[in-house]
Amino acid sequence: MNGVLVVMEQRAGTWNRMSFEALAAGQQLAAKLGTVCSAAVIGIGDNVTALAAELTNKNLAKIIAVQHTLLSQYTADGYTAALEQAVKQADPAYVLFPHTYQVRDFAPALATRFNSVLISDVIAIHDGPIFVRQLLQGKLNADYKHTASGPCFVSVQAGTFRADTLKSGTAAVEPFAPTLDPAQIRSKPGEPFRESAHTVDLSAAPVIVSVGRGIGEQDNIPVIQELASALGAELAASRPICDNGWLPMERQVGSSGQTVSPRLYLAVGISGAIQHLVGMKGSKTVIAINKDENAPIFEVADYGVVGDLFEIVPALTKAVLAAKA
Ligand SMILES: Cc1cc2nc3c(=O)[nH]c(=O)nc-3n(C[C@H](O)[C@H](O)[C@H](O)COP(=O)(O)OP(=O)(O)OC[C@H]3O[C@@H](n4cnc5c(N)ncnc54)[C@H](O)[C@@H]3O)c2cc1C
């Protein structure tokens, strides 16, 4: 067994951004172990060929392009069967994934094929390697070490590793054609998650404007929505906003909501409770607007504005719109 294999995620020729964080994790794990890192891209057609080619300037041993017509759309059965064969051939010691909804769906089944488990939602990798996961909604960190024979399967939480730390190099694409039979695929793909009417995957949003209890009441939410629209950002919220039904639950960020790692996270009227921070601390730049200068959110903010959101946010929206005009 050798090396680290990172299974990248794409849909219709578009990367899931978290794949590059997992790739950075893979490179760093390989460096720790004194071994090599490879990547796998899965699907069919020109999309996959083009995406695999995009990785040839990265420091990778190889890029495995796993292609089959039965992989044109994601199914747990198809991905599990195809990756089982690809992993057996590549024989890596560690298989890493981004901790996406799709990975949560198929990776435990894939690990089971190797009599193993998925060490999911890892927030740090220490020497050993030791994989750190959070338990009890972030109250405890637990260390996991792989002791069984066979590959170790790990998914990496958004924001844990930075995609901008990826090391460059040169790598060749190696095609891999799994043997798949239509009878193996028991499910028929429906509408993809991201496109469905009432759901939002905040983990892929590059800019997020997040609103907290400082907004006072539901009728004031448009003040924040207008700023989000001006910035082309997704609207998110702290838990009380969603608990009150002022915004849908799927927009909640935090230990019992989504984990996000946008380029910019604007926290408006959010105090910065630990349960909120664990969901957004991977953001590249954090701007906080809060009238309390001692609010804990300022401890993780790169830029802090102490003041009344009802004065600052409309002025900011106006300035953004003026700058874009
Ligand atoms: C098991 C568990 C899980 C949890 N999961 C989550 C989770 O996933 N996500 C989450 O967010 N929380 C979660 N919480 C709740 C968390 O503990 C906090 O209660 C919550 O994050 C607080 O939300 P908030 O910051 O919006 O509200 P508050 O703590 O009430 O803060 C409001 C802030 O707005 C500021 N403010 C008020 N008026 C203005 C104004 N006019 N202008 C500017 N600033 C103003 C105040 O100074 C204050 O800092 C969880 C709690 C538990 C126990």
In short:
This protein has 325 residues and is α/β, with parallel strands linked by helices.
Class of secondary structure makeup: alpha/beta
Radius of gyration: 21 Å
Span between N and C termini?
Answer: 57 Å
How many DSSP H or I helices? 9
Percentage of helical residues? Answer: 25-40%
- List unreliable stretches of 5+ residues: none
Strand order of the largest sheet: 9-8-7-10-6-1-4-5-11
How many E-type strands?
16
The H-and-E topology, N to C, reads as EEEHEHEHEHEEEEEEHEHEHEHEH
Ligand species: flavin-adenine dinucleotide
Average residue-wise pLDDT: 93
Strand content: 15-25%
Sum up the overall morphology in one term.
elongated
Largest sheet: 9 strands, mixed
What would your notes on this structure say?
This protein is α/β, with parallel strands linked by helices and 325 residues long. It is built from nine helices and 16 strands. The strands form three sheets. It has a nine-stranded mixed β-sheet, sandwiched between helices. A hairpin with a 4-residue loop joins strand 8 (130-135) and strand 9 (140-144). The protein binds flavin-adenine dinucleotide. Flavin-adenine dinucleotide is lined by residues 137, 212-214, 238-240, 252-257, 269-271, 273, 275-276, 279, 289-292, 295, 308-310.
